[in-house]
Amino acid sequence: MSELVMETTDYIKTNEKRFLDELFELLRIPSVSADSKYAGDVKRAAEFISKKLKDAGADKVEISPTKGHPIVYGEKIIDKNLPTVIVYGHYDVQPADPVNLWTSPPFEPVIKDGKIYARGSCDDKGQVYMHIKAFEMMNATGTLTCNVKFMIEGEEEVGSANLGEWVRANKSRLTGDIILISDTSMVANDTPSIEAGLRGLSYMEVEAVGPNRDLHSGVYGGAVANPIQVLCEMITSMKDKNGHITIPGFYDDVVELTKEERTELNRTPFNEEEYKKDLGVDELFGEIGFTTLERTGIRPTLELNGIWGGYMGEGSKTVLPSKANAKISMRLVPNQKSEKISNLFAEHFKKIAPKTVKVKVMAHHGGEPVVTPTDSHAFSAASKAIEKTYGKKPIPTRGGGSIPIVALFEEELGLKSVLMGFGLDSDNIHSPDEHYGVFNFMKGIETIPLFFRYFAEGK
Ligand code: BES
Ligand code: MN
Ligand code: MN
Question: Is the pTM of this model over 0.90?
């Protein structure tokens, strides 16, 4: 074992309990960015991150206000001639709903079977905190090999609407060599991997309005089109029986992978039976002609995220509702453009609306897809670091999720990202009982300093 691995292993062992206690403190703050009633908690989480960055050895730390939630910025410049790593992450979390489906309260972290259960444990507080503790450790052991700039935001889960503006305004201090992000997952703890691509996103909200008021479903039913039914039919028609999306032009810009690339992608270990069992479904469904790994990695999708209308309270109410609504997201792949896809959707949706309803379409946040290079020095550094701590060379994969800011970093700062995530797809992020392995948390803290070392070595 090399000296650095020895030292960090000792440091982690001695401080493991404190690391977890501190993370628990952060997890107890319900920093839900989507819900304004938690705005004070979001602010408290920013203050917590800022304090911990200072304690860990950052020279300049500030809580930078935005029109929405603040961005925590901190840096430590040790030598202008050394490479600079910009660490990005987010301290905001998804709403905990449905809260009654949690086994333990979402903001009262507990360890069960070696896993930390809490909203944000994996996405992304646990992974952000690994970076802060790895940074502390590098400072404490005198092994920091790069300059570091931290950019931890509070609006990732709501589309990072204000980060772009902040990045543009702070361009001069965001000079660096690489963006390092731990906000993705690995295939399994015994199959380490690095995501080399993220999908983009177009998020739409639609409304279909029929009669000018809610009607008695007996008095009027049968004579007036029901907007819920109409909306359902419109939505259903947007995908054919082969799982192809029918919006004209939707696939025009999709980059098809070569046969070799597809073969490579499908080498990722994947057990369909276990996958189905874990999800509690008897059969999978997706675009015909593609494997599950391809369906989530390299193909665009259209999914209903929510649909509502009419009476949804207890018991029954006979009503023919005036309107129906839905939220629909589309995951995008290179080279689709979020704005173009949102426009295609809106045009198509309006076109297929029957005369029985009036429709409204609104675009929520979006984000562009990215592919991160696997032949770069930074990717090799991450790969070597993981190989050292996991004992196996990580395989490159394509992630289905989105981190919209990654494409923007490339555009605005000209910087590539490395997605060195330590979560697992089965960690229930965004779902009840989100958890994060204590093993993964500690492995992250052990691996990050090695990334810094290998990254500095080749520079
Ligand atoms: N960390 C996730 C993205 C992710 C998870 C990528 C797992 C790859 C693997 C991130 O916090 C997230 O949830 N992003 C949102 C997008 C955002 C605009 C709401 C998403 O993917 O839905
Ligand atoms: Mn995240
Ligand atoms: Mn998330």
Answer: yes
